[in-house]
Amino acid sequence: MANVTFSSPVMARDVTVYAIAGDRGTILAVAKAHKIPIPFDCQDGECGSCLVEVTHLSPTVKYAIALTEKEKELLKQLGKITKAETEDAEVNDMPPHYRLACQCFVRNEDILVTFEGDQTLPAQGPHITHAASRYKGGVEIATIEEFLGYAVRVEEDAAIHYDELAAAMEACGNQDVSKLFHQLAAFSRLHLAEAKSRAGSIDVTKHLPPDYVWPITRPPRAYPCGQPIRRSQRWTR
User: Can you count the helices (H) and strands (E) in the chain?
Assistant: First the structure.
């Protein structure tokens, strides 16, 4: 198996796919199978539209995947391969940086494939999960006082939550994770102190809705040691 990661300005995020060496054919074939938008035209190594840069991620495994005369000539015309790189690929089995996706076969190694993509397409923004793209917001904060009220209560609840997680991990004998949760609790208390400082004399408790609770959407689950986190289903004060 080989991990092939595709990266391009026309993609919202890098995409890694699994390819079976020898069975999945060329980089272009893998890209088409997974709807990766590598441009292509002739698919025969004559037009250069599927030019990609290939980075071999393993320091010890690098396959040059014999360059055809057609590919070498076109890479030379595009100014993407030097004479030294050509000799290195032929004599020392060292792969060049640039390849034609329609000519480069996937081997049993992890690679990063970078390409410019169709320049007529706009560059994609950062990837947003489906859940985030659908979320329209459930809380409207209208005033600074209300914002500070939420900040204080959220950090208070977060600190308690992290401490309970730390206790559960300690009961399991997992000291490293317990230490991590205690550190997160400490950070929440630092944020709490800053929120209270910014609030000053404002009584932030007056600016929260009376039904505010720490969101728990499902019952606590048991941890590997069999000890559940003991907490109420709705945190109120």
Answer: 6, 5
Most distant CA atoms of the chain, gap in Å:
78
Q: Cα separation of 224 and 219, whole Å? A: 16
Give the Cα separation of 127 and 13 in Å (integer). 6
For 162-183, the DSSP string reads: HHHHHHHHHHTT-HHHHHHHHH
pLDDT in tens, 106-158: 888 889 999 987 755 566 665 555 555 555 556 677 788 888 888 888 898 89
CA separation for the pair 15, 108 (Å, rounded): 18
The pLDDT value given to residue 171: 87
Task: Take residue 32 and report the two structure tokens written for it.
Answer: 């088409």
What residue type is 225 in one-letter code? Answer: C
